[in-house]
Amino acid sequence: MNSEPCSWCGDDVDPDDGFRAYEPAGGRRAVFCRIEHIVPWAIQGSRWGAGGVTEPAGTEARPSRCSHCVSQLGEGCVLLVRHRGGHRIADGFCSVTHMRDWAKAGGRWR
Description:
Layout: E1 4-5, E2 12-13, E3 19-23, E4 28-32, H1 38-43, E5 49-50, E6 78-84, E7 87-93, H2 96-104
Antiparallel strand pairs: 1-2, 3-4, 3-6, 4-5, 6-7
């Protein structure tokens, strides 16, 4: 297993668990063990790591609208992928701020 450290707390995140945030245009990524960790990470300056979208085949199609404001996504969008076992659940956002606000409100389960 190739676990990765959470970008906020540093705890190990297994490949089939947690959240992966991507900024495809910038080739940057972040990893989170819990959705709640997106909020302080974004507030403290969004420290990204290097790396593009690395989702395995079978991931649902990339979202075309922001999951927070429903606007059409452009090139500078942020992609957040929930890893749950073999499942990959993707959400897209106009910005890190919209991803933070969506996570703060409870994400898909608000």
